């Protein structure tokens, strides 16, 4: 007799490949030593937070004994913090935003859940683009929705607009995009985003209800070779940008994120009231106090992206030398190569035999590939070269 709900019991039986490989890595590290295991399984940024974060933390401690230093605040965060964030986002997103256009949340995950709870009716659909971050399905089901994905184009993992048009239907409530993308590192171009906005405008009119466009952007800061991701907020009234400071300030455990609403939205006040409500009733109540202080003081800073660029170059060299097929990531800190032999699960197990930890593409809705997170020291990448070569040889030339 199970004590769990059927859905959660199913989730446990089909645990996230990311966590599964992360846990396998712990076993290998205990057996062989941490320096002899090459862990590319988890997108956990290893760079220290910028000096501005450390200074902000020290400044906060000086006032921590004051009354209500850790007290409740409005569900959407401190007004001064939202206003400061809105000023920064106005420059980044290319459209004027005010504090009333932004709500602070418990990470981007909290923001996504607050948004989906606000707009999604039971049985309605969230449409994503594969490969996709696996948690999207769980977040959708949290609120009675159904998650479905359309495969991206074979060239550059770009949105396949004709395929999306065919997939859209009267039950589609949200189209959820992620650029720069986890797991592929693809950055969607202006042509793709403009076409998607025009498509959703037309479909919203056809269905007589809004089809929302939600852009998940925690890796916006991390693009290479001068690439700048286009903003959705100026292009479509029913657009929201959801992000966090987990990656650019190396604060994933502090859980500070946000939802920014397009100021073009006529019903903006209604949506913001709903987001404040859902932020509370989902149990988040309000964003972290310390996180807001750190964010506000350090939002003009970021980690040294040149370090990630050097790691990207090293990983590309290791994979090329070993004969892998891959597309160079334009952003984020992931590679998504083709799995030699075609079976991504079998190949990830072959890598595991060489103490190299990766995640099968099946975990991201895209079999036949595997993900490598290169948020590790460059020396780890270089030392894994032999393991990558041996795993490929084992699969393509079995004994």
Q: Count of helices?
A: 14
- Mean pLDDT across all residues, rounded? 95
> Biggest sheet, open or closed, and with what strands and sense?
7 strands, mixed
Overall morphology: globular
Beta-strand residue fraction: 5-15%
**How many β-strands, per DSSP?**
12
Approximate helicity band: 40-55%
Structure description:
The chain has helices at residues 6-13, 17-32, 51-62, 79-93, 107-119, 135-142, 161-167, 190-207, 268-281, 289-298, 305-321, 344-353, 378-383, 385-396; strands at 38-39, 102-105, 125-130, 146-151, 172-178, 212-216, 239-244, 257-261, 334-335, 356-357, 359-360, 370-373. It has 399 residues and is of the alpha/beta class. Helices cover 42% and strands 13% of the residues. It is globular. The chain has two domains: 6-49 and 303-396, Aspartate Aminotransferase, domain 1 (Alpha-Beta Complex), CATH 3.90.1150.10; 52-298, Aspartate Aminotransferase, domain 2. It contains 14 helices and twelve strands. The strands form three sheets. It has a seven-stranded mixed sheet, with helices on both faces. A three-stranded antiparallel sheet has the order 9-12-11. It has a two-stranded parallel sheet with strand order 1-10.
């Amino acid at each position: 007799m199970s004590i769990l709900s059927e859905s959660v019991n199913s989730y446990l039986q089909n645990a996230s490949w990311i966590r599964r490989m992360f846990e396998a890595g712990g076993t290998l590290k205990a057996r062989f030593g941490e320096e002899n295991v090459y862990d590319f399984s988890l997108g956990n940024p290893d760079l220290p937070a910028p000096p501005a974060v450390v200074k902000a933390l020290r400044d906060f401690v000086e006032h921590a004994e004051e009354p209500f230093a850790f007290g409740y605040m409005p569900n959407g965060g401190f007004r001064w913090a939202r206003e400061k964030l809105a000023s920064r986002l106005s420059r980044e997103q290319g459209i004027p935003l005010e504090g009333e256009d932004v709500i602070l949340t418990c990470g981007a995950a909290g923001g996504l859940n607050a948004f989906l709870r606000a707009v999604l009716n039971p049985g309605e659909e969230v449409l994503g683009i594969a490969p996709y971050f696996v948690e999207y399905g769980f977040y959708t089901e949290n609120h009675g929705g159904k998650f479905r994905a359309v495969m991206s184009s074979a060239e550059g993992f770009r949105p396949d607009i004709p395929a999306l048009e065919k997939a859209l239907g009267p039950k589609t409530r949200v189209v959820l995009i992620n650029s720069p993308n986890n797991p592929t590192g693809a950055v969607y171009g202006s042509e793709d985003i403009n076409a998607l906005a025009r498509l959703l405008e037309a479909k919203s009119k056809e269905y007589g209800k809004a089809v929302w466009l939600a852009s998940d952007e925690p890796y916006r800061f991390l693009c290479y070779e001068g690439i700048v991701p286009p903003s959705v907020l100026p292009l479509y009234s029913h657009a929201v940008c959801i992000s966090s400071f987990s990656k650019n300030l190396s604060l994933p455990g502090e859980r500070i994120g946000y939802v920014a609403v397009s100021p073009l939205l006529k019903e903006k006040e209604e949506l913001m009231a709903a987001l404040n409500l859902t932020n509370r009733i989902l149990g988040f109540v309000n964003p972290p106090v310390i996180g807001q202080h750190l964010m506000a003081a350090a939002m003009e800073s970021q980690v040294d992206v040149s370090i990630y660029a050097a790691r990207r170059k090293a990983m590309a060299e290791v994979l090329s030398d070993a004969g892998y097929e891959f597309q160079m990531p334009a952003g984020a800190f992931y590679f998504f190569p083709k799995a030699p032999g075609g079976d991504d699960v079998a190949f990830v197990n072959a890598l595991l035999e060489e103490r190299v930890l990766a995640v099968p593409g099946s975990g991201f809705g895209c079999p036949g590939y595997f993900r490598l997170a290169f948020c590790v020291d460059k020396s780890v990448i270089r030392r894994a070269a032999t393991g990558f070569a041996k795993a490929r040889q084992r699969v393509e030339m079995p004994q």
